[in-house]
Design a protein that fits this description.
about 700 residues; alpha/beta; six-stranded parallel beta sheet; globular
């Protein structure tokens, strides 16, 4: 038998007498990557910005540890968040001559361990894995008198997953969501009842869901000394990728794996935390050096993915984030040759925005760019329809990633059936469509719950298609609209081919393209409307756009539209996140900043560039003289205090002091003037606009 570190062992072709061949393992690494790869055995934290080569770094670290005899390949457990990422890691490790490393997702690793230890821990036949929980959630929802439509059940299932990922029991759920002010898919006590009923039904059927895999694995190691000793003898070294996205449950499993040991390497980027709604938290990454004071911390900031122009835009965006702790302040340094500056364009309406993007894409493909190297990214899936249609009209193939095509969505199919089946209605087409769609989920206000809200957005998009038809055919009725929808559905189902990618920003995480179009960048969409008033939610929306920017290798195109439909009121405002991104000399800067000709807003008193969120809201430097209407400001503060008491929320949730001061200085007389004040998005306009304008009017009378 050959020694595992001899030259004769084919597992380590680049090892000589137990020493890693430096030219092979260290080739192509920058100084920071090399420091992470060669760090001594023990806790290592790699803060890796987008495009900085983290997968290369961690796979070579594993190879280094194995090749220098610190650990055998089979004693390494590397966990990632997707099966695709785990497969890529295994492929790279095989290329480095390390085929025995276990690279799996958290759930896949837990499933394997639980199956192995089941006879000792539980005994008897192993419980079956529950592939989908909606049927049992539905049974529990009936008993709790909760909603049982498909969207409600998906929201309830998602909330149960969040609760289990957050280590919350049904009994502890109501108090926890109240403390967090979490947007729940129903009354908290009712959701807790569904959760409890689901657990009872599932256990009675002797089934495990995916979260149970983690819970039972952690419990087996925590409560059974022999199991823990056997596991820890097998696995000596752990690597966790995307550590900013671990949940409390996943951290509990990791702690159970480790025991008292510290041979752990974690890799992550707090700037790319975009799954807190599912229980993820960057806290574990950011507090790693505190938990392990002796840890080696390495910061990877050299970006090998994107041009300096793309990198600069990403740095500007994330640099304006509020409340960034030290561990998240990674500033990317572009390493590629220069490329084109990002494009910024404003359009009258969404169809015009989509048509312009489709024409640009068609020209790029004609000039030699592969369609598969182009992506159109948006905030919500309902935005895809107008781009599906626009690309179809110019003959560009596309694929929708991370979601169904618009006309394949269940709620859209139900809507089309309802419209086709409806009898004659003595009402304008748009009103008739709204009436037909009301029973299947179209309400006046967006509902709570992510799935219900996504369904609502799809139904609202159908209403907008009706508005679009009426604009060109004033006499169109339901029968004509049904035919229009069928024609669009047929046109939007080309054969499956490799083409331009259409994807939500969440679905784009971990991917990259030469060219990226970021579309629909208006307040109310990005940041999403229901994030307004919640500083943490707004910052997560900022990080989501940051992820979108850093998907681009060479070209970025950013756009927004002032209205949903042609001829509609142009009341939308471009996303607040675009402040500071548009260069002063860019033609869009005059449009984007009220015609002032500069992308960076300037003080209306002294003319200096505005710095800081409060100055942006006031539209003057915070130390420049104020022309505030003191009486109006007092009235606004009194009204805000009353609203805060009624809603049982802090006053700043209604409006910040800076926003109230800006209102009292500018005294907006109408909706158009009010929405130009930063801090007043669509949600706050709908909720408080009438009251604020009334107070302004009273003050002037």
């Amino acid at each position: 038998m050959h020694d595992s570190t001899t030259a004769a062992d084919p597992v380590f072709p680049w090892c000589q007498d137990g020493v890693v061949s430096a030219p092979t393992l260290e080739s192509g690494l920058d100084d920071e990557q090399l420091a992470a790869v060669t760090a001594p055995r023990g806790p290592v934290c790699v803060l890796a910005g987008a495009g900085t080569g983290k997968t290369r770094t961690i796979t070579r670290r594993i190879a280094h540890l194995a090749g220098t005899g610190h650990v055998a390949p089979g004693q390494v457990l590397a966990v990632t968040f997707t099966a695709r990422a785990a497969g890529e890691m295994r492929t790279r490790l095989r290329g480095l001559g390390i085929p025995g490393v276990q690279a799996r997702t958290f759930h896949a690793a837990a499933l394997r361990q639980l199956r192995y230890f089941w006879p000792r821990v539980v005994g008897g036949p192993q419980w079956q894995l529950l592939e989908g929980k909606l049927r049992i959630v539905g049974q529990a929802a009936v008993r709790a008198k909760a909603g049982t439509d498909a969207a409600s059940l998906r929201d309830l299932a998602g909330e149960i997953e969040w609760a289990k990922a957050s280590l919350l029991t049904p009994d502890g759920y109501p108090a926890a969501v109240a403390k967090l002010r979490r947007d729940t898919p129903g009354p908290a006590e009712q959701v807790a009842a569904v959760y409890a009923g689901y657990e009872a039904l599932k256990n009675r059927a002797e089934m495990l869901d995916f979260d149970d895999l983690l819970l039972h694995t952690a419990a087996a190691l925590e409560e059974h000394t022999g199991v823990a000793e056997e596991f820890r003898d097998r696995y000596r070294c752990f690597v966790v990728d995307e550590y900013q996205d671990v949940t409390a449950l996943q951290q509990r499993v990791l702690d159970a794996w480790l025991g008292e040991r510290d041979d752990l390497t974690v890799v992550g980027d707090a700037n790319q935390t975009i799954y807190t709604f599912a229980g993820a938290s960057p806290r574990h990454l950011l507090e790693f050096p505190r938990r392990f004071p002796e840890a080696v911390v390495v910061r990877l900031q050299r970006d090998y993915r994107s041009t300096p122009q793309v990198v600069s835009a990403a740095n500007t965006l994330i640099g304006a984030a509020h409340g960034r702790v030290a561990g998240s302040r990674l500033k990317l340094i572009g390493q590629l040759p220069p490329g084109p500056e990002p494009d910024f364009t404003e359009h009258d309406d969404e169809p015009a925005e989509a048509a312009a993007a489709a024409k640009k894409i068609a020209r790029m493909i004609a000039d030699g760019t592969q369609a598969s190297e182009i992506a159109v990214l948006f905030r919500i899936n309902a935005q895809s329809e107008v781009y599906e249609q626009a690309l179809t009209e110019v003959g560009v193939p596309y694929q929708v990633r991370g979601g169904e095509r618009f006309f394949q969505r269940p709620e859209v199919r139900r809507a089309m059936i309802a419209i086709r089946s409806a009898g004659p209605v003595d009402a304008p087409l748009v009103d008739a469509v709204r009436a037909v769609l009301a029973p299947i989920g179209l309400t006046a206000e967006p509902p709570s719950g992510a799935q219900q809200r996504a369904q609502w957005e799809s139904l609202l998009a159908i209403v907008e298609l009706a508005e679009e038809l009426v604009a060109v055919e004033a006499a169109a009725d339901l029968r004509r609209f049904a035919a229009e929808l069928e024609a669009r559905a047929d046109a939007s189902h080309p054969p499956t081919v490799q083409g331009v990618t259409l994807a939500s920003l969440h679905a784009a995480k971990g991917l990259e393209w030469d060219v990226v179009f970021l579309v629909g960048l208006v307040d109310g969409t990005l940041p999403i409307q229901h994030a307004d008033g919640d500083d943490e939610a707004i910052e997560e929306e900022r990080r989501l756009l940051y992820v979108g920017l850093t998907r681009a290798r060479r070209r970025l195109s950013l756009s927004w539209a002032l209205s949903r439909q042609p001829g509609g009121p142009r009341r939308r405002r471009r996303s607040r996140f675009l402040y500071g991104l548009i260069p002063d000399e860019h033609p869009a800067s005059r449009i984007a900043n009220g015609g002032r000709g500069a992308s960076k807003p300037r003080c209306r008193v002294c003319g200096s560039p505005l710095l800081g969120a409060d100055a942006m809201k006031l539209r003057r430097c915070t130390d420049c003289p104020s022309d505030v209407d003191v009486e109006l400001l007092d009235r606004l503060r009194g009204w805000r205090a009353d609203e805060a008491r009624q809603q049982q929320v802090p006053a700043y949730v209604i409006f910040t002091d800076a926003t109230l001061t800006t209102i009292a200085e500018h005294r907006p007389a109408d909706v158009a003037s009010l929405v130009r004040i930063p801090g007043i998005g669509a949600r706050k306009l709908d909720r408080y606009g009438e009251a604020v304008l009334g107070l302004v009017a009273e003050s002037g009378s």
